[in-house]
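A protein record in our archive is deliberately plain, so that people and models can read it alike. The record that follows is passed on verbatim for readers who wish to inspect the format.
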Amino acid sequence: MQESTQELVNTGKMLPLMEEFYTIQGEGYHKGTAAYFVRIGGCDVGCHWCDVKESWNADLHPPTDTKKIVENAVRYSDVVVVTGGEPLTWDMTLLTKELKSRGAQTHIETSGAYPLTGDWDWICLSPKKIKLPKEEIYNVANELKCIVYNKSDFEFAEEQASKVSKDCILYLQPEWSVRDKIIPLIVDYVMNNPKWRVSLQTHKYLNIP
């Protein structure tokens, strides 16, 4: 029996693709390096300051054959960053298997709000207060990126940092719309708490996607 489109999406053979593009990683540990980005639609975490709210409704983004996504990606880069939306809404097993079979490094940017699927070379965990990460992802996160919108976010960041492994790199990133107000607070905080690093959305300063 032929699988329906919904069944294909549910099993990760198709994914609601919002956009895909080759650019420079703007944030976190790999900032400044070239990578192919795959943005998957669908997210119910609902951060009020999200700068890609158009990704939230998966129904707006066409189910796309996962192998086609892989073909497009490896044509440009051997580093593929999967982001969203919240990519772990969907099963990432086949996507990462196919990417690795083609020699690509697999990176993910996730809130960790859903169970971890897929085989990842780099996991950027960006937890949100609204829907906390699953416990399983803390020990495997390579970097923790906490968005700072107001002063209370520093306390939340410390709570999250207490759960990751000692090798996880810790970042504080100003929310873009309040950056002028928040950056001085982050600078002071990192100087007083040097286990943290500052992450900036450098792609926005460079005016690239």
Observations:
- Residues 5-205 form a domain with the TIM Barrel fold (CATH 3.20.20.70).
- The chain has one domain: 5-205.
- Helices lie at 5-10, 66-74, 93-101, 135-138, 152-161, 179-192, 202-205.
- The mean pLDDT is 94.
